[in-house]
Amino acid sequence: MPSLKEAMATVPFAAALVAAILLFPCAAASSPSQQLRLSPRALVIVAFADNGSKTPTEEAAPWVLEEGIDERIATASKTSLRCNASRTVCLLITGVGKVNAATSLLSLGMDPAVDLRRTYLIVSGIAGVSPSAATIGSPAWAGWIVDYDLAHEIDARELPPDFADSRFQQGCTTETGCGKAGWREGTEAFELDSRAVRFAYGLTKNLRLPDPPLLAKIRSAYSQRAARERPHVERCDIEAGDTYWVGTRLAQFADGWMKHWTNGAGTYCMTAMEDTAYAGSIKTLASLGKVDAHRFLDLRTGSDFDRQHPGQSAIGLLDAGIAGGTFQIAAQNGYLTSRVVVRYIDAHWDALRNGLP
Questions:
Q1: Which alpha helices (DSSP H) does 6-97 contain, by range?
Q2: Band of residue 12 on the pLDDT scale cut at 50, 70, 90
Q3: Domains along the sequence of the chain with CATH
Q4: For residues 201 and 203, what is the distance between their CA atoms, to the nearest angstrom?
């Protein structure tokens, strides 16, 4: 099982991109960022695209408006990067999806005028949430990130009668998998540094987070104990896929998929899009000495449930999530949680410069 705590092996897609960057150094050489020498203490990573104004969309907005991370930084990598006045904390807006996530983070990491070797890299985004593990508005620090996309799939209308799920391990012809005989790409699962996760969770576990009436109304329709609690900080794990999916059957698959790729160690609670791209990019950059993978943290906050409540259809759930107004609430609660860690790093840099004590 690949781990970000182990020796860093090159991710094929990421490696190809890094090679392309290295083959064209002349573009970077003429950039003003050559004189920048930016080395932030913390880099917050969000996905939602920068809309070019002072008020970017949900995930980025609180960092820009409330933390003052509003100075646009021109880099050779052409990434959407902003920093605070002291340039100790920066915000990278990658765009949605794995391709955007990987290209943005790798490009920034390979920029010769940006030094991320001591930087703490913190993803702060929204996600679908399993009502069996957490509730909407609750942030969760991940110990595992599993790829939802690397699989075989048969259209559900053409499944063999004994198959419960339409997705299963590559190289297998049974839904239960075929062990070592199946195909493995090496990027199916990433384990984050457990000490870093404990550090972040310890700083934030007692936060009292906002709980607007809208959240209480939505969660009241669910019977699961975890779903009915008010928002609070959790520790549980992420599955990442480019498809925004919802529904009980797919959620049940996600539960088992997490157990399969973590040998039972992971607890699925959040479904997001970009996270294996972030983890794979950091793994590649760490292998090149550009970042410290032990300083990587991933926080996702539930913005909508991944499966419907009794009496609700899957399409009804999707419609409610898109139109319901909970994305902004989740982004704010995620910001309130991750900012505690970011501010602590910034304020205690002398103690944390060389890594966690």
A1: 12-23, 25-29, 61-65
A2: very low
A3: 12-150+185-352 (3.40.50.1580)
A4: 5
